[in-house]
Amino acid sequence: MREEKHLLRATVSFSSRYHNGTAVRLVCLAEHHISVGEGLPFGRLLPCSAHLPLGEANIHVWEEWAGLGQLEDYLSFLEYLLWVFTPLAIVFILPFLIVIFLYLSILFLHVYKRKNQLREAYSNNLWDGARKTLATLWDGHGAIWHGYEIHGLEKIPDEGPALIVYYHGAIPIDYYYFLATVIIQKGRTCHSVADHFLFKVPGFKLLLEVFSVIHGPQEECVKALRNGHLLGISPGGVREALFSDETYPLLWGKRKGFAQVAIDSKVPVIPMFTQNLREGFRSLGTLRFYRWVYERFRLPIAPIYGGFPVKFRTYLGDPIPYDPKLNAAELAEKVQQAVQALIDKHQKIPGNILRALLERFQRERKED
């Protein structure tokens, strides 16, 4: 009874400060009801065994009445959601940074074009300075973010044609770094073959033109090689970008057009692969829905996530010389085996993001 009276006193004191009518009503209730809290307003009452001072009791009753306890639970839930979804947001946002970087490159080209309009009539190579500037930017990005290395660059001829065949990552950012290195160290622009959808992306036309990107008819490829240019192509293309995974399967199918191009041009084929490429960026294309959309509508809408600063090492294999005895199917098989050999030699299967991150701190360079 002493604890009950203490509790009622605290409640009456609180009520009397704000509602005199309520205080009188509580006193009356206290005279008729012995059980604690029966008929009392303002929600749950304090445990009397705590023997709280009157001020603390008043504060607690006010918090209960205002619902501050529920607000605290709500804020804790929001904090939990933030903790869960922040990493997911980061890995999906980083790929968009690459797209932003591409658009910044396009913006630079437009500015450069306007600045040099008066010089266009007096220059045979208007875009050479722009290409070298962008190559420097991409080369710096690769060095800083991925510690990018290229092994076997001496296998790229200083002059004359060659066909470079490479494994296609979810985002072929390694190929951008390769192009930049060739421009800077070899002083050459490597022509490239890209999927048709890339030519439909708003604003990309100028960038593709300046860096000699074509959509892939065999006649144009042969023409570029016969004119003495380097040409890069990924037989796996968008399919390999979307549906390959950390086990690095080559999804070339029965494609042999690239081999026929090499035969018609009578040029060597140089295989290329970049270590940890799938640990930098990964695709959700392995999910059935995205595969169905691509197969049905040819829309490459599978989300790409990542942007992790893993170690990138590009390896160039020994050139496969032109052999008139080989047909397109045989040459395609030989090239695929050469790329697969680079994967088997330089990539740990399955790929691991943490391991690839730790390789950034390795001081000794791996053997080629």
From TrEMBL:
Residues 149-272 form the Phospholipid/glycerol acyltransferase domain. Coiled coil: none annotated. Signal peptide: none annotated. InterPro entries: Plipid/glycerol_acylTrfase. The chain crosses the membrane at residues 80-109. Keywords: Membrane, Transmembrane, Transmembrane helix. Pfam families: Acyltransferase (PF01553). SUPFAM superfamilies: Glycerol-3-phosphate (1)-acyltransferase. PANTHER family: MONOACYLGLYCEROL_DIACYLGLYCEROL O-ACYLTRANSFERASE (PTHR22753:SF14), TRANSMEMBRANE PROTEIN 68 (PTHR22753). This is Phospholipid/glycerol acyltransferase domain-containing protein. The lineage of its organism: Eukaryota, Metazoa, Chordata, Craniata, Vertebrata.
